[in-house]
Amino acid sequence: MTLANELTKYWEIQLDPTNKDNKVDNWVQYKKQIHSQRGNHIPHISGTGAIIGRLRLERHEVRVNYLLRVTFLVRQAHFFYHEEQLCEHQAIFYKGKLIEDKLVTTPISNEPKQIEQRSIAKNDRFSNQRFNYDRRAAVNYAERWWDDYNPAYKQFDVDCTNFVSQALHAGGAPMRGYPDRAKGWWYRDNNWSYSWAVAHSLRWYLSGSPQGLKGKEVDSANQLLPGDVICYDFEGDGKWNHNTIVVMKDQEGMPLVNAHTNNSRHRYWSYEDSYAWTPECQYKFFQIGVN
């Protein structure tokens, strides 16, 4: 049996929603548990994979890296939607048999700590510039590129904020501040502001920007609409690690989001199923294009 066939056999068992005896601890099983705790039912799960690299470690031992794309059919009473996630995994084979499989995790932040959080938004000259935010265009962009990378932009190892910024710009958010990376919000000629690509910086830009792209902070996730933004401080230590964009709402009126860095589509907004989440997690909810 080939290595690809071994992986296929393994994941056929993991993705079977009727399998109650599965003892393997992985993110797919945990996501099923989280959905069950919310009262959701997952009647079907499907997956596809592609090997992206292999390395022989010893005579009989081989390490394989592969991309796994999993689609969950989620049911909430009479409401159905698909949730999708694209992750890199690493598997170890010994004499052709799978002996270990694990998720390849990505650092949750690449924030330069020395950036002054409020200066990014407030040190730029400003006028009363406004824009009409096209939420549909922003959402369409986030749906088109959630599992891929637009070649017009640089791809970052930690790409969540870059992805959200691209979607906001597709919705008409105007750039400003070029060429000072510590001012405004912009991307040009393979260069960018901190607020364009760094989670901590975008969070403070949205709350402090006096013109153009700015966020109106609200108290709860259910106040958000498709096209709005959620910021995450996973450890609750004041350093904002992650950003997502709302693309739809579930039957209970709660946001479902798209994101890069462990690329996700229609993921429940709270991210409790993420390896980065902790009980100390803090959120910021921003409405976009609201004066």
UniProtKB/TrEMBL annotation:
Stored InterPro entries: Amidase_6
Domain Putative amidase: residue ranges: 132-278
Organism: Paraliobacillus ryukyuensis
Highest taxon of source: Bacteria
Protein name stated in the entry: Putative amidase-like protein
Alphabetical list of Pfam families matching this protein: Amidase_6
Listed transmembrane segments: none
